[in-house]
Amino acid sequence: MEDPKFNALEQKIDTLIELCDKLYHENTLLKSSQSTWLRERAHLREKNEQARSRVEAMIARLKALEHES
Description:
The chain is mainly α. 94% of the residues lie in helices and 0% in strands. It has one helix and no strands. The longest helix has 65 residues, at 4-68. The radius of gyration is 30 Å and the shape is rod-shaped.
């Protein structure tokens, strides 16, 4: 003879285990995405810095040309 309370508790525990598994996998995916976004962000910052340096160098050359004239 089975106890209905025990069966209900067992079902709730199974549901919690499934939820924990789902959340674990979701968290793993989110961490992977975050890592990818952080790498991309660092790359874009580096490209932005390079572009800024090139623009500053061009401005400096233009100013030097202006003073030579």
